[in-house]
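Let us practice reading a record.
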Amino acid sequence: MDDCSVELDQETGLYCTLRLFTGVTNTPEIREKLVAGQLRCCMMKASLVVDALQAVVAANKAALSAKRGQLITRTVYTEILFYLSMSKNISRSLAEFGIGTNDRNILAILIHKPGEELSMLEEVSSNIEGESIPISRLQKFTDVNLIRKTYKIDEDELRISSLTDAVVSRISCKEFVLSK
């Protein structure tokens, strides 16, 4: 399977692994398990991801916050959704980027120690009724207009920067940007 696994900041000693699912039919059950803390991962709308780098940058920031004991949300996984969003409102961030009952294309984000990814991927995959597909197909599910609206990216900015760079720079600088 074409998953994306990346070593996060060395300070954390952790890795981030991404897995893409399509045709998911049990999103309400997955949401319940996520809220109850029964799944050790973050699940987000694939439509709001322009590139895997976007998810990895947010996961890295979340892992660093957890390592430093500075989580703004309750878990490292909800922290990823918080960092993906431009909002400082936690509930809004989770609703905007977290999976909704009608989402069928989902990106699973796992944060783990070296060697834990296979068991964690198996645990997550066994709870999802849908097809696991290569992460290289992620852009097929990207909603560029929704991403531009969500991150407030206009044509002028895209003349000098790629959409991925614009999104990643916003995530990287979130704590320095004033937003409601």
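A brief commentary: Residues 52-67 form the longest helix (16 residues).
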